[in-house]
Amino acid sequence: MGVRTERGAGVASGRDVPEEYLTGYAGILADVRTTGRRPGPEALAARRALGARAAAAGYGLRGLVGAHLAATRAALGGPGSPDPVLAAAEQAVDAFAEGWERARHLAVRREEAARREYVDDLLLGRIDPGGPAAGASRFGPAPASAYTVAVARGPQPCEDAGPAARRVGAALAGRFGEGAALLATKDGLLVCVAPGDRDEVPVHFARQACAALQDAGLVAVGRPRPGAGGIAASYGEARDALGLADRLGFRGPVLRAADLLVFPLLTRDRAALADLVLSVLGPLRAGRGGAGPLLETLTAYFDSGCVAAESARRLRLSVRALTYRLERIHRMTGHDPGDPVQRYTLQAAAIGARLLDWPAQPLPPGPDAAPGG
């Protein structure tokens, strides 16, 4: 049974406050009324504990204060004869608390909007994180000559007040202190901005993010980048690494942009890459089932370190069947997967095919690409 105040005189909290949060309060009032002594340390400690429980349960301060005022009026005024002074006090305090709550909510919304704008400007390179307009003293990160950005993606979009953000934020603050890094969300990703000379911060972020996402997430870490646009550059690298993971099937759980530099190099000239794919792997389209099965064989072979037994296991083939496929690829393309020099050309073409999603998607025109390639 909750405590409900009289209509027009109490708190319009929207829901009753359970009696458990008023436990012992009437006894404190009765004791004070009888002895004239103030509540002792144990009684006040019990009230603090109940207040913490009520906050954790999601009850607002206004409703809780109103419930205590109503209990005070009931205990001191007596049934059927409410004290008009206490009734007026209950109304006045409720109005005061309502004004405080409204102003507090407005301030919180303004702070959230300011932080969101700051994060967007920071990640897009619109402001210098060390400059006076950056607001680093309010939101972070700590001033540095370079910055590293790490991003985490989960099966569901991450939110600023979501469980993953709260858990990772508490872990970073507990390990490195408040303000050592900026933790935010952007487009459903959990983002950590840290000083570039503190590699332990993104490492800890990656570990905590993987745990918070129940090992179902993927973390990418950009390189430390200096200057006003360093955060934007590192953030872009981290996001690009997630895109590469999707196209190339990388499983992580942590990817470092510094380890993936060859892939942006390959995609920098898409026309040349398309020409490489078509020139080297185009003949595979004449195979049974098209180029797909043979390209899958090449991918598994290179991903397993060119170990035939492991490649066959991944493809659920016998080693003999795998060897036969590799021989067919050699005959059709003129490139031997077993030759170190020719293997490099085949592997680069196979990676290019995955980056361009070929043969599922048509290739962009290249200098030597035939129409409709």
Note down, in words, how this protein is organized.
- The model is unreliable at 1-15 and 368-373 (pLDDT under 50).
- The strands form two sheets. Strands 3, 4, 5, 6, 7 and 8 form a six-stranded mixed β-sheet that branches.
- Strand 4 (182-186) and strand 5 (189-195) form a beta hairpin.
- The chain has 373 residues and is α+β, with helices and mostly antiparallel strands.
- The chain is built from 14 helices and eight strands.
- The longest helix has 40 residues, at 84-123.
- The chain is elongated, with a radius of gyration of 32 Å.
What are the SSEs and their pairings?
Blueprint: E1 2-3, E2 17-18, H1 25-35, H2 41-56, H3 61-77, H4 84-123, H5 136-139, E3 146-153, H6 163-176, E4 182-186, E5 189-195, H7 200-212, E6 218-221, E7 225-226, H8 230-248, E8 254-256, H9 262-267, H10 270-281, H11 291-303, H12 308-315, H13 319-333, H14 340-355
Parallel strand pairs: 6-8
Antiparallel strand pairs: 1-2, 3-5, 3-6, 3-7, 4-5
Helix pairs in contact: 1-3, 3-4, 6-7, 10-14, 11-12, 11-14, 12-13
Characteristics:
373 residues; 6-stranded mixed β-sheet; 14 helices; 8 strands; 9% strand; disordered N terminus; disordered C terminus
Regarding quaternary structure, how should these chains be classified?
Answer: single chain
Output the number of helix runs.
Answer: 14
Judged by helices, strands and strand pairing, the structural class is alpha+beta
User: Mean of residue pLDDT?
Assistant: 83
